[in-house]
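Reading a protein record of the kind used here takes only a little practice. An example makes this concrete, so a full record is given next.
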Amino acid sequence: MWREYTYFICNKKLVTPFEYKYCWHIPNTLNIDKMKTLSKYLIGKQDYSFLSNEQKDKNCVRRVEFLRIKRFKQFIIINMRSNGFLRGMVRNTVGILVAYSKNSLKINFIDNILSKDIKMKSLKAPSCGLFLTKVMYDDLEELK
């Protein structure tokens, strides 16, 4: 079983009245290449407690299958697929990608990038751009 979320960022000076409820408006140009560099470290099976709003005693090991970032016209579209998501995980992920792109988050790639000492949860993206786009059940017999 897996789920896929899509997050939309409107990356232009002005946002239309039709767009503002469905995306995070960031008027300054974001560096997609920096976001893609950081996203490589957020893929795979690992403890994602640093990106979650879960209780400390919860098992936060998940497997992120992919984290894709692409630009379509003036939008940045982020797709994330995992075997399970923690509360706040996608919004916190988008928040650190944007902060790193804007140089407001410095990361030492030689040391442990996933340091739990960093207060990454304060960089959470707003909910307006987040959408659950796909859900796949491996075995439909599990639902019975």
